[in-house]
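Write out this protein's structure.
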Amino acid sequence: MQKHAYLIIAHNQFELLEILIKMLDDERNDIFVHIDAKTKNFDFNHFMSITKYSNVCFTDKRYSIKWASFDMVKAEYALLEKVFESKNIYDYVHLISGADLPIKSQDEIHNFFEENAGKEFVHFTSEKLNDTELDRVRAYHFAMGRRNYINRFITKFESKSARLFGVNRIKHLEVQKGSQWFSITSDFAKYVFDKKEFVYKQFHHTFIPDEFFIQTLLINSKFKNNLFMPNCNNNQLACARLIDWERGNPYVFKTEDFDEIISSKAMFARKFSLKEDKEIICKIRDYLGVNNGK
């Protein structure tokens, strides 16, 4: 029987987070959660009591995550730290957000990863990055936190200045990027955890570093031979996710998308919003059952 660790990064929609945790509640799963430091009066005790089968653990370290900043990477390492502190042996480690849902039963999810045991489910946007994408890592970036005109101008200025003065922080490193959400083996998760010092040094001033560090670590390691989808070319099924970047940034699924969701080959989908469409969330939950697979 495989054992899985779920790492969840959440900052709002805590009713949805509760639904998500209950849908993951299974004796084969443990759940690790990072709650954004900006969140006040979060009821940790309540969330630790809502499962019947899974252990729910919260990170000791909490970060105030700003868009495009290194704080997201810090949150991921805080979660990995709790995983390896637990001393439990996991076959797979999944990173999801608090706005995600599983779209298959727990039995289906576990059977899928047993059938593909040893494969790394990591997404890549393309086989080769263009200069604009590489500039996010080559240059030193400091304008994080807001997607506004001023920060976009600063980011472009930082990239152009780096080119002008020959600044290149990745001269001897193959760099790749993709979705931050992954399902990886425990062996690769431990490799990522052991590379913490390198990641903190190399990616600290990267623009949106969470889209680079996992892919870059993997492609420069032996684990690249274990990719589920080696020639990903921006296919989100490479990380077993249903994510639609054509209709949104990403698209928020609606009730009318139910058939598309449940017929997908993906194991998880993002994203969902209680405010925009609560019905689809309840419909998926009820279709699968809160504690499916018992």
